[in-house]
Amino acid sequence: MTTPEEQEPVDTGLVRPYVITNGREPPEDDRFSMITLVTVSDEEPPRLLDPEMRKLWDLCSGGFLSVAEVAGHLRLPVGVVRVLLTDLAEQGRLITRAAPPPAELVDREILEEVLYGLQARFG
Amino acid sequence: MGSKLASDNSTYVSEDVQKAAKILVVGHFAVGKTTLIGTLSEIAPLRTEETMTQAGSHIDDLKGVRGKTTTTVAMDFGRLTLSEKLVLYIFGTPGQQRFLQVWEDMSRGALGALILVDPERLEESFPVIDLVEQYGLEYAIAVNQFDDHRQHPAEELREALDLLPHTPVVTCDARDRKSSANALITLVRYLLNRHP
Predict the structure, then answer these.
(1) Residue A32 is assigned to a structural domain of this protein
(2) Which residues in chain A (3-42) have CB-CB distances under 8 A to chain B?
(3) Dihedral, CA atoms, A15, A20, A24, A29, nearest 10 degrees?
(4) Domain interval for residue A80
(5) pLDDT tens for residues A34-67?
(6) A64 vs B12, B80, B138: nearest CB
(7) Which of A36, A41, A72 shows the shortest C-beta gap to B46?
C-alpha cells in the first residue's frame, strides 16, 4: 500500500552518502538552508571532480537553484548536497543568494509580497 | 553566470530573484500533500531526501555510523515564482512525530503551514496539528474535500479538531488549481493578520 505520497524510508542508491562526503558531516550553521539559492562561478570547473561533484557542477552552472532543488535533481540527500556545496564555497566557486535571515521571525514585508504574488498569479 | 541559458530554461530560478520564501504543506500519509503541490507548482515537483540519525545503543559499522541508526525521509516540494524578485517554495512535510529531526530543518524560516486534512480521517490530523504547534508555526486548516465526499460543515470540523477561533478553516480540492491557491492565499492572509 504505497502511494507516491508516502514518506517511507527510501533507498539512496548504491553509494552510501558517507562515501560521497568522505564521512564528513553537513555544516551545522544555516548557510545552506533548503531554500538558499545557489549557483557556481563562471570559471572553468576544477579538474578531477568526483562524479557527484561533477554532476552538481553541471547542474548548478545553468543558473540559480535552491539547495532543495539541487538535491532533488541530483537525487542526493540534502545533507550530502550541503557538504558538496560547502566544499565549493571554501574554494570560492559558489555564489549564494536569498539565504533567509538568521532570525526566525517572519518578515511582514515578505508576507505581503507573497500575498500579492499569489493573488496576481491566481486571482 | 550562464544567464542566457537560465532565462531560457524554466528549470532555473529567474536571474533577478533575490528572495526565497517557504511554506509547509503538512498532513498525514496520503492526505493529498503531493497532489496539492503538483497542482500549484510551476516545476514538476521534486523530491528531497533527508537522513535522520537516531541515537541507538548498538554499533553498526557497516553503515559507518557508531551507535546511531539512520532513516531517510522523502519530501516532495514545488516552486512558484511570485514576482521578479521572489520565489516561494512549498514543501510537503510529513506530520509524524517520528520525523521530528526533519522538522528542525523544515520549520526554520518557514512562513507558516497549511495543514491538509481529510474529513473522513480527522483523528489522523491530531498529531499533525500538535507537531505544527510544537514548532510554533502559524497555520491554517485546508480540508481536502473531494466532491464525492459528504459535506463537513466548517464549525463541526473546528470543534472536532479543537481549533482556536481565529484559525482559518478553508475547504479545497487539491486537484484544482484555483481552489488550492485559495487555500494558500487564506493562509498567507491570516499570517499577515498575525504579524501586525
Answers:
(1) yes
(2) 3-10, 12, 16-18, 23, 30, 33-37, 39, 41-42
(3) -110
(4) 17-102
(5) 999 999 987 777 777 789 999 999 999 999 999 9
(6) B12
(7) A72
CB contact under 8 A, B15 and A115: no
The residue type of B139 is Y
Identify the closest residue of chain B to A77 by CA–CA distance.
B49
Nearest to A114 among B82, B178, B181 (CB): B82
Q: Is residue A89 part of a domain?
A: yes
Question: Residues 88-117, chain A: which have Cβ within 8 Å of B?
Answer: 95, 97-98, 100, 104, 106, 108, 110-117
Mean pLDDT of A103-110: 73
pLDDT < 70 regions, chain B: 1-9, 53-70, 146-150
Distance of CA A80 to the CA centre of its chain: 9
What is the number of domains present in chain A? Answer: 1
* Mean pLDDT computed over every residue of chain B: 84
Alpha carbon separation from B73 to B4, B19, B91, B147 (Å, rounded): 36, 27, 13, 31
CA atoms of B185 and B59, how far apart (whole Å) = 48
Q: Provide the ipTM.
A: 0.85
pTM of the prediction? 0.85
Any domain includes A116: no
Domain assignment present for A122 = no
The enclosing domain of A24 has a CATH number of 1.10.10
Q: A11-31 pLDDT, tens per residue? A: 445 555 666 666 676 666 668
- Please report, for chain B, the start and end positions of each structural domain, with discontinuous segments joined by +: 14-194
Residue in A with minimal Cα distance to B184: A118
> CATH topology for B14-194?
Rossmann fold (3.40.50)
3-class SS of residue B107? helix
> Collapsing DSSP states into helix, strand and coil, what is residue B94?
strand
